[in-house]
Automatic annotation (TrEMBL):
Entry-linked SMART domains: WHy
Organism lineage: Bacteria, Pseudomonadati, Pseudomonadota, Betaproteobacteria, Burkholderiales
Protein name, entry field: Water stress and hypersensitive response domain-containing protein
Family matches, as Pfam families: LEA_2
Domain of life: Bacteria
Organism: Paraburkholderia polaris
Classification via InterPro entries: LEA_2, WHy-dom
One GO BP annotation of this record: response to desiccation
Length: 175
């Protein structure tokens, strides 16, 4: 007997109850997926000790939660692209809670490998005309289900910030 026929004739009330439970559960979860994404901005950059030819920075991220539920996280991952090329990456095992309609500062150490720095130095030579460098900052607040706010079933809250950086003018004054 097919599933729908069994429901129609009422021969399997347990099956109908299970189906009703699944539908109500999925309906309850639908509100979680309609949440606003977290907002992340760079609040500061400080140099830290480096090893060998790499360069390291401590990036301070301001994480804002525009939702009605707090976001619990246990780890942060961050990738930075400049001019469409990978430039720096970093991870932090920092954990915490971004309160509902609140914000916190999260610290993530970023590493710029030597070859990425050299590649960008050559790329900057071509950007000197416009003075604008496009960037993309991608990251993730790890933690899966996070107090009812998540952007996926697993993997935590992903975020992205992009724009352009302006190089300082290198004008030369002639006497």
């Amino acid at each position: 007997m097919s599933f729908f026929r069994a429901l129609r004739f009422g021969r399997t009330p347990g099956l109908a109850t299970t189906l009703a439970f699944v539908v109500l559960t999925l309906n309850g979860c639908a509100g979680m997926f309609g949440s606003e994404p977290v907002r992340v901005n760079v609040a500061g950059i400080d140099p830290i000790d480096s090893q060998g030819l790499e360069v390291r920075f401590n990036v301070k991220l301001r994480v804002q939660n525009p939702n009605e539920s707090a976001i619990n996280f246990d780890g942060v991952s961050l990738d930075l692209e400049l001019n469409g090329k990978p430039f720096a990456s970093g991870v932090s095992n920092q954990s915490g809670v971004v309160p509902r309609y609140g914000e916190i500062i999260v610290n993530v150490p970023l590493t710029v490998p030597a070859f990425a720095a050299v590649r960008q130095a050559f790329a900057f030579a071509g950007v000197t005309q416009s003075g604008q460098i496009p960037y993309i900052l991608r990251g993730k607040l790890a933690g899966g289900f996070s107090g009812g706010v998540t952007s996926g079933l697993v993997g935590g809250n992903r975020f992205i910030d992009q724009g352009t950086l302006s190089l300082p003018a290198l004008g030369m004054a002639l006497p």
